[in-house]
Design a protein that fits this description.
With 312 residues, the chain is mainly alpha-helical. The protein has 15 helices and no strands. It is globular and about 60 Å long.
């Protein structure tokens, strides 16, 4: 019982430190910047310019906005965009392509805090964009080609707050700060549970046993066996849980910054159990196209993973 209590207390302390002293300040700054750009109309103009360029891969203006949200806000932010697409006449085929793109991209609530751990953000962002576009293209022209492409009258107007004076700017910053605080505090339970599970598995020897069993296969494939733990955590507990585990591994020396950057392509994205559950909550039609979207996202993630390995 004393061992379990010690595990829980150490995991809780690590989770709170990561959420409040790493995740919160990074998200406050980045969300404030994104919301100010949104309120000033900068993102509207960017979407207007980029939308025609990405149309051949099955993306619309709202899809571009979803890409900005996943890369610069959080993995849950595109839910609002997917809901807008559902209610504003987007076809199932376009919806699947957008969902695939989002699933294949790097979520900001994981990538931004991991900069402090040594993550190369510029490379991560570049391959996130490439992987997302590949995922959208193979979904729209491949996995979702049998879905309906019939569109209703599509309204792609982005409704958001404006910042026309100093008070408007302060209001936007305050709302962004509250949003960042909600994200950081909401991450604590998953971080605690993930770190408790990891410590329990380590103490019981289960991780060492699994590593010994898989090490020959992974070594033959030039994959670091140390990635077993963060990979299991990521696909079961999500990106934030993986971030907590990777932070612990970097601190105790069982992981390196090089390993972090090489594995970023297949570890930093929302194609996991919690991520998919949140994204398909956007609506009935989004839930109905998740299978072709997930297949397309897997292709995009494979492209990202290969790119990170080649450049790291």
């Amino acid at each position: 019982m004393d061992i379990l209590t010690d595990i829980i207390l150490r995991a809780g302390r690590s989770a709170v430190e990561l959420a409040l002293f790493v995740l919160l300040p990074v998200m406050v700054v980045m969300l404030s910047l994104m919301r100010l750009l949104e309120a000033k109309g900068v993102l509207d103009r960017l979407v207007h310019v980029v939308a025609p360029v990405v149309k051949p891969v099955g993306l619309t203006g709202l899809g571009v906005f979803g890409a900005l949200q996943i890369n610069f806000v959080s993995f849950a932010a595109p839910v609002a965009t997917l809901t807008m697409m559902e209610t504003r006449g987007a076809s199932d085929r376009h919806l699947a392509a957008t969902l695939a793109m989002v699933m294949a991209m790097a979520q900001a609530n994981t990538s931004f805090p991991m900069i402090a751990m040594g993550l190369d953000f510029s490379t991560t962002l570049a391959f996130s964009i490439i992987g997302g576009l590949v995922a959208a293209a193979v979904t729209y022209h491949g996995f979702a080609r049998t879905l309906s492409a019939q569109e209703g009258p599509v309204d792609e107007t982005l409704h958001h707050h404006v910042a026309e004076d100093a008070k408007g700017v302060l209001d936007v910053i305050n709302r962004a700060g509250a949003e960042a605080f909600k994200i950081a505090v909401g991450a604590i339970p998953m971080l605690v549970l993930a770190l408790v599970a990891v410590q329990a598995l380590r103490t019981s020897g289960a991780i060492d046993l699994l590593t010994r069993l898989l090490a020959p296969v992974l070594t033959a494939a030039a994959i670091d066996p140390a990635l077993i733990l963060p990979t299991l955590t990521k696909y079961i507990g999500g990106g934030t849980a993986m971030m907590g585990v990777m932070d612990e591994m970097l601190k105790n020396g069982s992981a390196t910054i090089g390993m972090l950057n090489r594995s970023a392509g297949f570890l930093i994205h929302p194609l996991d159990v919690p991520g998919v559950a949140v994204l398909i909550s956007a609506g009935r039609r989004a839930a109905g196209v998740w299978k072709p979207a997930a297949l397309g996202a897997a292709v995009g993630i494979a492209v990202r993973a290969a790119g990170h390995v080649l450049l790291s």
